[in-house]
Amino acid sequence: MEAPDNLRFDFEDWISEGSGNTRHEMPAGGWSSGNVGVAIAKNMFNKPSRFPGRKSTDAKAGSFAAVVSTELLNVFGKRIAAGAYYLGSFDKSYATSDALSSTRFGIDWTGKLPERFKGWYKYQPGASYQDASGNTLPGTDRFSLLAILYHGK
Questions:
Q1: What are the distances in angstroms from CA 81 to CA 53, 62, 72, 85, 92?
Q2: Phi-psi map region of 29: left, alpha, beta (phi>0 left; psi -120 to 50 alpha)
């Protein structure tokens, strides 16, 4: 996928994907997420109750913002569906067997190097911190936001 002429992402433009209980909205402009895989689970098992990546009107500026959350799943041997947005694509052919192999990170960019990354976020830790088996651990989860630039072919 080729990048737009400028890399300004404000989450104001969204596109609708899926239908019925698999309908969800995605930010326009090259963004992807695991929502495509979650749609498969929702279609088969009606889980989770909401998509881990979704649009919100709780915005610092403009009309919309992107929300990511962790949702209880318990299908395909996965306890949770973690929300994330990234530039790239999601290959749903691996979604039920090897979800981590579904992500195709990155977009081609031949323009100027970015001068800065600027944004706002809100964070609320989950009610409990758990390991992969669902056992409660001491402490709370921690916020993580990444911007990765790389040079390659």
A1: 10, 28, 6, 13, 15
A2: left
Q: Which two tokens stand for residue 101?
A: 């192999």
Two structure tokens written together for 147: 């911007």
Q: Is residue 38 helix, strand or coil?
A: helix
Buried (b) or exposed (e) across 121-144, using 16+ Cβ within 10 A?
Answer: eeeeeeeeeeeeeeeeeeeeeeee
Residues facing 27 on adjacent strands:
14
Read off the pLDDT of residues 14-43 as tens digits, 9 standing for 90 and up.
Answer: 999 999 999 999 999 889 998 988 999 999
Please give the structure tokens belonging to residue 6: 């400028």
Is 126:70 a contact under the CB 8 Å cutoff?
yes
132: left (phi over 0), alpha (psi -120 to 50) or beta: alpha
Q: What distances in angstroms separate CA 144 from CA 83, 109, 125, 153, one per listed residue? A: 12, 24, 11, 27
* Residue matched to tokens 């992402």: 9
Q: For the whole model, what pTM was predicted?
A: 0.80
Query: Cα(84)–Cα(24) distance, rounded to whole angstroms?
Result: 14
